[in-house]
Amino acid sequence: MASCEFLNSKGTFRLKSPENNSYMYFPLANEAGVMSSITPTLNGDCKMGQNTFLLAPVSSEELHNNKSSRNFWVYIDGVGAWSATGISAAQQAEIFSQDKEETQLEAGIMWHKATRTSRKYGLKSEIISFIPATDDKVELMKITITNIGNEPKKITPTAAIPLYCRSADNIRDHRHVTSLLHRIKTTEYGIIVNPTLTFDERGHKKNTVFYGVLAAKGNGEKPVSFCPLVEDFIGEGGSFENPKTIVLNEEFKIKSNDKLEGYEAIGAIRFEDEVIEAAESKTYIVAIGFGDCKSDFDSIVNNDLKETAFDNLMKETEKYWDTKINISYETKDKQFDNWMYWVNFQPMLRRIYGCSFLPHHDYGKGGRGWRDLWQDCLALLAMDPSNVRGMLLDNFGGVRFDGTNATIIGTKQGEFIADRNNITRVWMDHGAWPFLTTKLYIEQTGDIEFLLEKKSYFKDIQEGRGTEKDLLWNEKQGNQMLTDEEEEYKGTILEHILIQHLTAFYDVGEHNNLKLHGADWNDGLDMADEKGESVAFSALYSGNISNIAELLKYLRDKKNIKNVELAEELLVLLSGNDELYDKVEVKRRVLKEYCSKCRHNIRGNVIGMDCNELISNIEGKAKWLKNHIQKNEWICNKEGYSWYNGYYDNNARRVEGDGEHGTRMMLTGQVFTIMSSTATEEQVKSIVKAADKYLYDKSIGGYRLNTNFNEVKTDLGRMFGFAYGHKENGAVFSHMAIMYANALYQRGFVEEGFKVIDTLYNHCNNFDVSRIYPGVPEYINQKGRGMYHYLTGSASWLILTVLSEMFGVKGEMGDLTFEPKLLEKQFNEENKAAIDMIFAERKLRIEYVNDNRKEYGNYSINEIYINGKKYKFNGKTTISRATIKELEKVSKHIIKIILN
């Protein structure tokens, strides 16, 4: 099995002949908003948003057919032209021959180094690319050219970066016309483009963005000339892979302080001819970036265009991201530990890129979705919990009073925007995720009072859970729910959570399960809006409602809270009993009555509800829902396998079981019935057997999302239009596979949970099949290739599962508790398994010592030491938060846990 070779414990890896693998790309970005993708041959793009692409936007297929890539050319006197990136017609023609150049990729967090050795030309190139972890809006490259021959060579070096400088919309919408907007100027160090206007969905507006390419020799020496226009650079009949000016070594005639207008631009920058001696190297720095004015590029020249500055910035950037990733693992499998280091990084990438702006993620225009806000916080709670409280509080401002939520999320934290197109978007799972994240936050911090914080509600034209429009609403009144007195209403976070769950409880289909609406977590189930039901997420909601009751008990018993404030409208949802819950039409009437009471405004009256009464009410709902699923949705097929049905289609028919074209089974329904404890222990055993029979495929990474239904099921969702084994239709979808592992671990099925993660990891780590850099992709296709890499919520769930379930390091109302579920084979040669993390603002190293090599289930925690001093614990394997807070804040503290 081939894999990327890790060079240290921080995920730095090496890969030979990387360009022999198609569709691979690497992320380079910073928190100032620069987002790039880069391939082994330096293809890819660079942008700051949908309307500000510096390099032409690329989807996955453009990675191999787009000639418009970053390039650096060397013309060797008497020999010819050579591309330091390998992107020349001659070099591309030799890629499958025995004369192919030797290449190697080395990369770490947010930096990328491509090395190329040509015996034919007697040259070696090393190109390091990164984006500084500063406020600078720039991507930097350091190109080092080395003469590996025995004789001196006279060379003419040229940087050549094609410039796009406009909205992605213009790639086929007024591509030529928008080039007429270009105003191009040469400076002493490069080429700057400042289009006059922008043509995109915002209309024709004055442009305010400057784009540019700057370059200098490693010692800061200026270039000598420029060729800013594409058509002049490539020449008639030429191309970016075979440019006439390079191949014939033609003189660049444009000098600094020249102006050109109305053409496609390129940052073609020529350096002075020089002789490079045998074994000698020459270094060049290239910067591509954005500015608000020309002086921003002067700053780049002053701060970045020297080798010493480049090297210092890169060291600072490496240190910055290493500090951000403050969680790491040590097990017997060092490959796994390094692979997980990249998984740790993925939620940070999604905070920057959203769900767009990498080559496979070409379906959006930026930003994150509702689920992303909450699931990305799961990882932050493990790695950087300091700002999570404010983030959670702001995020709750997206909840509507009917239990749905805003779906257009702004760039600022807590910013939610009304859909100007008035498109109804209701995903029935959306109400479940905020509580899962909030519960984890409370467990980690003990901040149960967070439930009593107050926050406004989102308001727009949508109402009645997507079934009606509030024609009295307009954008002038803003996006907050108002009272009859036209004052902004704020309710507790507990109230927000209750509204999300109680409205869902009453929003049912014909079989009394929660309605599917536009989809649940699986966006491909989007064609059953009328009669579709999600049993899978009905189970998750039932588990959530039970856990809400448990938090209320803690508020009552530990914080002496006897009553909680709720808007009086909620009394409608807090009525009922099992007899009412059994009746679909009665439940629908209850929901309709509630929605009518909050149609435009609410009264603004608040009641104090007795905690005991509230706990009893919601516990009754959770119990009813769980019993309903157990009674009606457990199925057995003709082969004798049993599992839970997860869905009903738009004809109100049960989806899973024996189908006309074969067995129908979906993973999602099994995950949430296990996770919510709807499934009994015996049922979990049956589910595992069925999943292993119908869904498990080791050759593609483990557990498929579903079996092959062998039909285009237009009464359930678009996923069935996809080829089987791709994306939502039967691929190994990492997110749900990892949640399956999490659910199994929670229920004590450790060997089975480990199998899920281990199979997925080993597949991704097998580069010859997965064809991806380290990390977890969104899914694995039918051929075994990892797809939609980096930007996936599965990374957060994997971090959470490895940390809190596999290593068993958890918060318990602010205290730190240990419940390891490590298998014997995971302990290293020193009988240890360790994790470095932050808890209660303290850096901790937690080491489990299993000297007797006992298997999970046979060991227990015998002793705990903090910095070598024995810690007394009373049966419960917990260290109090107060004890941890007493530790010094700066140094790392070792907690050694002896298993016996």
From TrEMBL:
Any Pfam family the entry gives: Glyco_hydro_94
Entry keywords, A to Z: Glycosyltransferase, Transferase
Lineage, uppermost ranks: Bacteria, Bacillati, Bacillota, Clostridia, Eubacteriales
SUPFAM superfamilies linked: Galactose mutarotase-like (SSF74650), Six-hairpin glycosidases (SSF48208)
Protein name (record): Cellobiose phosphorylase
Top-rank taxon, per record: Bacteria
Gene Ontology MF term list: carbohydrate binding; glycosyltransferase activity
Ranges of residues in domain Glycosyl hydrolase 94 catalytic: 486-564, 617-806
GO biological process, one term: carbohydrate metabolic process
Domain (Glycosyl hydrolase 94 supersandwich) ranges: 106-301
Organism the protein comes from: Clostridium chromiireducens
InterPro entries reported in the protein's UniProt record: 6-hairpin_glycosidase_sf, 6hp_glycosidase-like_sf, Gal_mutarotase_sf_dom, GH65_N, GH94_catalytic, GH94_Enzymes, Glyco_hydrolase_94_b-supersand
